[in-house]
Amino acid sequence: MYKKGIELSKNRGQLGKAIEYMEQAFVIDRSIAGGSGKYSREIKKKLATLLFFQGVDAYVRRAYPDAYKAFRKVLKYEPDNDRANKRLADLAKVAKDKYLEAYVIRGSNEESALQNLDIILKIVPPSNRHYKKAKLLKEKMQGPLGDE
Length: 148
Known about the structure:
The protein is an all-alpha fold. The chain has helices at 2-9, 15-33, 40-60, 64-77, 82-105, 110-123, 129-142.
């Protein structure tokens, strides 16, 4: 799994498959060596790098929820990864901008406003103030969440 993941990681078009193989290698390493085996650190580092690239790709494509998931996963393997933390901070700025846009257009373009609010709820944690504001605004526009 590890060698296949490394091989696939050399081809940007195979990023998703490389991550799959490296995640499998991580699980195997953890089950055999408790996550502290010979390759454990290398696997975590490679996974963090691959996931970061996946997150950047998603961010550039404005697939912000996918970027958020990838950057959060980077932190699973490298909790102190500054690059991923910076990108998560960038997503928090996107959430703020999307909230302001949703607030302004809610009366004239409710569908777009709701789409922005949905994105916000997927790109920042519930503790983020724009998450809370987006949830409240969505409830005002649609009624309480979960009452569908």
